[in-house]
Amino acid sequence: MKWTVLVVAAVAALASSVVLGPATVPLSELFRSDIVWNLRVPRALLAFLVGGSLGVAGAALQALVRNPLADPFLLGLSGGAGLGAVLAIALHITGPWALPIAAFIGALAALGLVYRLGLIGGAALDPRILLLGGVAVGAFAAAITTAIVSLADAAELRNAFLWLWGGLSGASWDSVLLVALYAPVPLVVLLAASRPLDLLALGEEPAGYLGADVEAVKRRVYLAASLLTAAAVAVSGVIGFVGLVVPHIARLAWGHRHRALLPAAFLGGGALLAIADTLARTVVAPRELPVGVVTALIGVPVFTLLLRRWTVA
Amino acid sequence: MLRRLVFAVLILASCRSDGRTVGRPAQRIVSLLPSFTELLFAIGAGDRVVGRTTWCDYPPAALDVPSVGDGMPPNVEAVAERKPDLVVLYNSGPNVIAAQQFERIGIRTVLLDLNRLEDLGPAARTLGRLTGLEQRADSLALAMDSLLHQPPPTSTPSTTLAFVVWDNPPIIIGRGSYLDQLAALAGARNVFADVAEPSAQVSLETIAARNPEWIAVLSDSAGPPAFARRREWRAVRAVREGHFLPLPGGLFGRPGPRSAEAVRQLQALLAR
Fold first, then answer.
1. Chain A residue with minimal CA distance to B70?
2. pTM (2 decimals)?
3. Three-state DSSP class for residue B27
4. Confidence band, pLDDT 50/70/90 cuts, at residue B8
5. Fold match between domain B2-148 and domain B159-270
6. How far apart are CA B109 and CA B96, in angstroms?
7. Residues of B in contact with A153 (CB under 8 A)
């Protein structure tokens, strides 16, 4: 039953984001229209893929660091991506894909640094140090970014922040294809780690006794979730709340079994971001809202209601 | 509430500087906006400009004036070091705070609005009063105001354009900007004239649907912008057809004494 509801919601979200938009396109011409075919459809698909990836990455990271606050961007990736993008502009690296590639490289650099920090004191990845290292690397990258923006004399640097704070304006069949080829690899790795992730919730030691190769799982999950997030930030900037709120909602309905939780978080995240982007494009048309604003406006009230139910229960 | 407070501060601040416009003509002026630098040189006060921003690159003689930084926000000490008796600032929140700092150390300031072409005349006249060059300022103001009163080249604009100032997310120019006025004076209609603000984020779909004949970009190179090669932008007809209007940033990036020249250049580009 709940799967049916979720799948229907996901399909409805995708359909509505193709049908609705600031430009009026009659239903009869829907699939002959250049605007729909080359702008709306890739944008809807990209929103779904990115939202789903963030949902899964968030669920996996929350299990890994055993902290309900974990979010795909908490581990320094947004700071690294921002630094990459701003550096590309400040160094006048131009080209149609300069910003996404630079952001991706920046996110990977932050990922590597945090990962290395997480290994401090031995070969075991310590989730607490991952969290602290992530926050520290993120803050450091953000400080360098702000220094560059205030010192370099490129007027367009301010716009780099706009890009960074999320949006699917850059969606095209190229970016959809890129994500559709890239995302399945980390997604499958995470899904394959479902069972050990369930065990990890019991604590690292018990998980080890129950047969999980704890160290290998932690590394795999961290790298896969971060690589997924790095791709998301490269094509759509930092879109908040999806990776934080969706896993919690999914956990309420599907429980803590990751074999069900992760697919539910994918569909839920995809549906949420597709709906949020449709609203961002249409409610203030001809203007457009940054999509992160909409995900927060939808996500936070839902989240607050859930918090109340938790504390009451 | 906060907004009201800010407005109150703005009004108070502008009252104060207006009340102090009489007095000895300013001899050492720091200009914190390229448009003001151009206006000061145009009214014959160029030799009294002792400080400018890094963006002030016109007229060429302005480049000989020491720079006091980018002016966003003003570096109060760097400005004070030039020992000015007048600092000219654009009327904005951070500048209001900076102006209070200057007044506190006894430096006279003036905060001027400069968002639309009709702000140019009053700005020139105020600068004329403060420098004792009223006559030249007046004739410059008249010349700049006449730009606004001239009839548009044709009664109905024959061509349409959109100003794209950033591509991801797409940011366009609306009715609130002087660029919208420049387009109208050059005989073109800005397809985003219904957006009241100076600039706004829109979706690519809206640009494609409004189908402007030209995409105007502030750029010093004549070639098409980098985003022209991105696949999603090819849904916009003007991008597919390579209909770009590259507008040099130094001339089009600010309203000023050369705005009439900007209109002529835009007309020439449209007539290509």
1. A153
2. 0.85
3. coil
4. very low
5. yes
6. 10
7. 54, 70
Q: What is the pLDDT of residues A85-95, one digit of tens each?
A: 889 888 888 77
For residue B232, which residues of chain A lie inside 8 Å, CB to CB? 38-39, 42, 169-172
Residue B206 contacts A, CB cutoff 8 Å: yes
**pLDDT tens digits along A251-280:** 988 988 999 999 999 999 999 999 999 999
CA B137 – CA B126 distance, rounded (Å): 8
> Which residues of chain A make contact with B234, given a CB cutoff of 8 A?
38
- Kindly state the helix (H) or strand (E) to which residue B246 belongs, with its residue range: strand B244-247
Q: How many helices, marked H, and strands, marked E, lie in chain B?
A: 11, 10
Q: Does ipTM exceed 0.85?
A: no
> Which domains can be identified in chain A, with CATH numbers?
35-312 (1.10.3470.10)
Boundaries of every domain in chain B: 2-148, 159-270
- Domain B159-270, CATH class in plain words: alpha beta
Residue A193 in this model has a pLDDT that exceeds 90: yes
The answer to whether the beta carbons of residues B173 and A163 sit under 8 Å apart is: no
Q: Is the pLDDT of residue A19 over 70?
A: yes
Which candidate from A24, A38, A285 shows the least CB-CB separation from B232?
A38
The CATH label, of 3.40.50.1980, 3.40.50.970, 3.40.50.150, 3.40.190.290, for the domain at B2-148 is 3.40.50.1980
What is the pairing mode between strands B159-167 and B214-218?
parallel
